[in-house]
Every structure is written in structure tokens, then in C-alpha cells.
Amino acid sequence: MRFYLGELESGHLSAEAFADELESEFASRRLSTPAQQKNYRSNVVQALKVFDPDHPAIALISLSTEQYRILNDQQRERIADRRTRYITSEAAEAIAHRATELIQSSEWSEVGAGLAVLIGRRISEILLSSFTLKTPWSLNFSQMAKKQATQRITLEIPTLAPAQSVLDAIHRLQSGLRIEDLRHQGISDRQAKQKVNQLYSSQIAHQCEIHFSDLVPTRTDKDTLYTHIFRAVYATIAAHWYCPPSVPEHQYKAEIQGHFTLTQDGQKLPNYAARSNYDDYAIGNGQGNRDGRLGIKLNQLPGLDIIEPFHRPKYHRQALPVIEEPPMPDPGPAKPNLKRPSVYADDLERITELMADIGVTGSTADVLHALVETLEAKVEQAERQETKTVSEVAQAINWFTQEIESLRQQIRDLEQAHLPATPAPPANTEELTALQECNAQLEARNAELKADLEATRSQLSAIQELLGGGPRTAPASKPTPTKPQEPTQSVITQAEPKQDRPPSRPDTTDKIADVIDAIIKWNTAQERSDLRLRISFPSVRSLAVLVGASYLPAIKDVMEAKQSEIDEIHERYLIGSRHNRSVQDKDGVLKAIARDYLGIPNWNEAVYVN
């Protein structure tokens, strides 16, 4: 269109011909509806007004006023259903109680979901901000996500559980997720927050759906339940429990959410521009009406006090200056700086076109926001699919492994039972042959499933790279396929059948217990989380094979006997059920354990096998 604009400006192209060319361009791009063409027509009109505000082509390419009205109404309907959802006072108690249980979990994503409820903060704020104890029911919070790095503001925020237990959970999460490594990379605060959200937000959002979807009413807009929990639900419950009745609820919410601007002399002015977003939820009476009560826990909990900004006599409702919605522009130094990123015109046009194809229109900011959320949704969907696929394949592999072990045991029993006889009975020989054939088929199928598992992981990595981010976890070590057993030529001619027997049970269990103790000692000695291993069936079996203790039922029995000891080490170091996926060099860790803690000569053969 730049060529045709130049021709139109020079007079070589008439207004009617220009309009025809624009229609042809729409047709070539399959933009047939006014909704799809809206932004393009607006951009062309703005370009025409640069050299002639009254150019006759403007009337030919602009949408009519009625068309704009219809499109704007449709867009407003798609944005969100703004009806207030009600949470009863009893449900608020249940939400906080469930969140308090989650912060005791050894799964980091569950801890993050619990903290989203109890302090109303994003995972980037939890991991990168500073928290200290203020009172038994509040924390000092600094370095907020939406404040500039130069604005070192400390904010007192109430907690929906005892503040010390909340602070302990924050510190466990900060140390367990290796945030110090991120800080040492020399990236800006904004880049660090974006990196943290990219790595961890989707998993925490998934846990919020699992644990709170039955207690928090759903909305029809595009935000996740996680977004509403750290934004609206926390503030609603906090006001219901802790807000003094003499303080307006929206002013209390603005304070604890950090919604204010700073004047040149450092004075905080409340900002209610986002107030509508935080009124999405309210405490109801169960009959469809607002409960209306504020501060119901004041004077009820030991050590509970009103947060400092609302202490009397410092607080005077009429004396507080207020920024009305929308906020008035301030020409002074307190006016925030607007950043306009440079974008290639062709890229912006292509993005607008792609988003228009799926029905997303509006300003450039709206389109880019929708694009980001679409990509995040696809990444989350891919992760869920990977979890489901990997789980199904792992279960199948486990079943086949057990079946193979059972068949091997039956073969050994048959060989031992018929060793003294000269010719084996035909019926038993046929049974043995059938078992061997079945065993070979199961082992072949087991190898195929392991190959499918690796292919699934590779596909997920490709999807994540296509969406603009690297894989969230390091690729798993390639499993070593089990070598199919050679068919036995004759039951009678087996030279030394006793060598095929599993070791005695006491000897096997002692070796497996030594393997588990070695992993525990290794984990205790490590300072970095990504060098620790979760004590799971694959990790124990990978080492037990090296000491001749690969009997699966024995491994299961020993792990059950030491379960309390295993759980304690997992909780102490925040080692969740998916932790081993984040350990990049699992083979190297196993080799180090086998060499330094088990002292076996074949330590270099250690390989992590799922």
C-alpha cells in the first residue's frame, strides 16, 4: 500500500482507483468482514490525513459511523462479563485454610499457589522482592512489580495466615528456585520479572485451577483463575477480615495492592484507575446480596492490628487527596514516562492481520496484549499435554517392566524345576517357548514406548521454541533400552542356572537401603537445588542396578519402609514430584553418588533410566 499511497499523493492514481486497490488487497489477504478490515482502514486513513486531511479517498475507504458503533459494541461484549461474583464468608475461610495447607507442600508450584492467595502477589514479586516481618499478621513488602526500580517503596501488606509461616514459605520458595543465579546474570529488573513469569507462572496457574476452582466462582473473560486470586480475591478477603469499618473498602484495597502514585516530594496519592478490576469479587451473604461487613477479625486474633497507614490519628478520610478515575494528566515530574517500543512496520502489519483473522481487533496495545496471552495459553496447553502424555507412557512402561520381570521369574522357576530331568515334557517345553516369545514381544514393545516418550518430549521442545521460548526443562537423558533376552536353547543344557537367581532378599534390601541413604547424604551436602535428586523409583533403580539389586518388588518395599525419611528430606529442600526434570545432568549426579557415597568400582556406568 505504500506504493499506492505515493501514486495517490503524486496524482497518478485517482481516489476511486486507490479504493479499488485497497479492496483487492483485502481480498488477497482474505479480510472479508468489517471487523477484520477495521484496523487496516484506520491506518490508511491516518496516512492519508498526513498529506491531505480532507482527501476525497478518505470517505471511500472509511467505515461508516454505524459500522464503527456495531464493531465497538461487539468488542466491548468480548472483553469481559463485569458482573460481580460473590464469595461467602465461609468460602473465604475455606480458601485461606486451603492456601495455608499448600504453603507447607514440598511441590514449589503448590507453595506459589498458596502464597498467591495469602499475600496477593505474582510469582515474580514473590521471588524477586524483599519481605520482612512487620506484625504477627502483616509483612513489609518492597520492590513491587509495577513500580520503577528507582522507587524503593516499602508497603505493609496483611497476610491471610500467620505472617511468620507465610514468610518462611517465601524464603523456602526463593531458595528452592535458585533466584540468586538469576540475579547474578546482570539483567535488568524488568527482564528478571519477565523471565520468572515465563518460567513459573503457568505451573502455578495450573495449581490454582486444581485447588481453588471449586471455591472461587469462574469468570467468562480471558484471565486465568490465578490472575483473579492474586488480584481480586486476596484483596476482597483481606478487606472483609482486616479493613477498619471507618475506612472505605476501595481505599483499603488500593493501599494493600500498591495502587498509588508518588508526588515530587514523595507523598503517596491513591490511584483508583484499576478499581473496576478489583471489584470483580465481593463477599456475599449466600442470597445474591453483598455481606457488607468489614474488619470482622479485628480484636479477634492475637497480635492482629490495623496496618499502619490507617492508624489513628494519622488517618483522616476527608484529608486524603484522591486521584479520580480516569487520572488527570500531571505535567510535573511525577508524570510516568511512556515507552513506545520500535516495531518494524511490516511485522506490526502482519501481527495485526493474524490477530484479526481470529477476531481480535483494537489498538496496537490491545492486539499485542492479546497476542501475548494467546502464546501463554498455547505454552500452558502444551505443558499440560506433555504431562498427560509422559504420565501415560511412563505408566505403560512400568507395567511392561513388571510383566517382563514376572515372565523372567516364571522362566527361571521352570528351568529349575526341570533341571534334573533329561527330556522336558512337551507341554512344559511349549509353555516355556510361549513365555519366551511373550517376553521378547513385551521387551520390544517396551523399547518402542521409550522411543515414543523421547519423541513426545522432542515435539514439545519444538513447540516451545516455535512460540518464542526455549524448553522449560532440560531434555531428559536418553534411556538405555533393555537388551532382549536370548531364547534358551534347552532347559536341560542350561550350564549354571543358579547364576540367574535373584540375590537373597536380605542382601538385596540392604543394598537398596544403602542406595537411598547415599542419595540422602548427597542431597544434604549440596548447596544448589539443581544438583539434588528426588528419591524416586527411577533414581533408586538406576543406582541399585550397579550393586546387583534391581529386583523391582524389593525396591518398592524398601522405599515404602523408608518413606517418612524420604518425605522429610524432600520437604526440607523443597524437592517436588517433578524436580528431577529440572536436573540437567542426572547421569553426572548418579555417577558422583555411586563413586563418592557408594564407593563401587563400576560407578562410571551409572545412567538415569525412567
Describe the 3D structure.
There is one protein chain. The strands form three sheets. The protein has a three-stranded antiparallel beta sheet with strand order 2-3-4. It has a two-stranded parallel sheet with strand order 1-7. Strands 5-6 form a two-stranded antiparallel ribbon. The chain has helices at 2-10, 15-28, 34-51, 56-61, 65-79, 89-102, 108-119, 123-128, 163-176, 179-183, 189-212, 225-242, 249-256, 275-278, 345-357, 364-417, 426-466, 505-525, 537-544, 552-561, 563-572, 586-598, and strands at residues 85-88, 130-135, 138-142, 154-158, 260-262, 268-270, 281-284. The radius of gyration is 32 Å and the shape is globular. Helix 16 packs antiparallel against helix 17. The chain is 55% helix and 5% strand. The model is unreliable at 314-320, 331-338 and 469-503 (pLDDT under 50). It is mainly α. It has four domains: 2-79, no CATH class; 85-310, Orthogonal Bundle (hpI Integrase, Chain A), CATH 1.10.443; 368-474, Orthogonal Bundle (Helix Hairpins), CATH 1.10.287; 505-605, no CATH class. A hairpin with a 2-residue loop joins strand 2 and strand 3.
Task: Name the descriptors.
single chain; about 600 residues; mainly alpha; hpI Integrase, Chain A; Helix Hairpins; 4 domains; 3-stranded antiparallel β-sheet; two-stranded parallel sheet; 22 helices; about 5% strand
Helix proportion range: 55-70%
Number of domains in the coordinates? 4
Fourth-tier CATH superfamily name of the largest domain: Telomere resolvase
Strand elements, count = 7
Strand proportion:
under 5%
Task: Kindly report the CATH topology of the largest domain.
Answer: hpI Integrase, Chain A
Following the backbone from N to C, one meets helices and strands in this order, namely: HHHHHEHHHEEEHHHHHEEHEHHHHHHHH
Radius of gyration: 32 Å
- The CATH class of the largest domain is Mainly Alpha
The SS-based structural class is: mainly alpha
